[in-house]
């Protein structure tokens, strides 16, 4: 590791801590580009998600017909949850 890793740093400000964190992440990304790259799904996972999504969508359509307004509300809630989940997956963090 080295001498820098052996010393204990105390009293760092938030700005210094953030700068140090960014430096560490930058070094890791330089050593391994996949570290900072976007997450990729395999073809098997994409197929499984497509099938699952189709089944859920078909089920929600049936619920809208059977339950009426409650089914529509449930469908809206599920769609919003899926969109937010997709955005979280894409960005890698919750919305701020």
Describe it for me?
The protein is an all-alpha fold and 96 residues long. The chain folds into two domains: 37 residues; 56 residues. Helices cover 77% and strands 0% of the residues. The chain contains five helices and no strands. Helix 4 packs antiparallel against helix 5. The radius of gyration is 22 Å and the shape is elongated. The two termini are 36 Å apart.
Gyration radius from CA atoms, angstroms: 22 Å
DSSP E strands, number: 0
Shape: elongated
Number of domains: 2
User: What is the mean predicted local confidence, pLDDT?
Assistant: 80
Distance between the termini: 36 Å
Strand fraction equals under 5%
Largest sheet: none
Which percent range fits the helix content? over 70%
The number of distinct helices, counting runs of at least 4 residues, comes to 5
Q: Please identify the oligomeric state.
A: single chain
Structural category is mainly alpha
Query: What order do the helices and strands follow?
Result: HHHHH
Condensed summary:
The chain contains 5 helices and no strands. The chain is mainly alpha-helical and 96 residues long.
SSE diagram, text form:
Elements: H1 3-6, H2 14-31, H3 33-36, H4 43-67, H5 69-91
Short descriptors:
5 helices; mainly alpha; 96 residues
């Amino acid at each position: 590791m080295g001498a820098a890793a052996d010393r204990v740093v105390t009293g760092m400000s938030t700005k210094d801590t953030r700068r140090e964190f960014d430096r560490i992440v930058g070094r890791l990304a330089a050593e391994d580009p996949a570290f900072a790259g976007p997450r990729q799904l395999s073809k098997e996972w994409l197929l499984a998600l497509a099938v699952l999504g189709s089944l859920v969508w078909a089920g929600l359509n049936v619920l809208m017909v059977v339950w009426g307004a409650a089914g529509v509300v449930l469908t809206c809630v599920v769609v919003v949850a899926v969109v937010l989940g997709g955005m979280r997956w894409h960005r890698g963090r919750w919305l701020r």
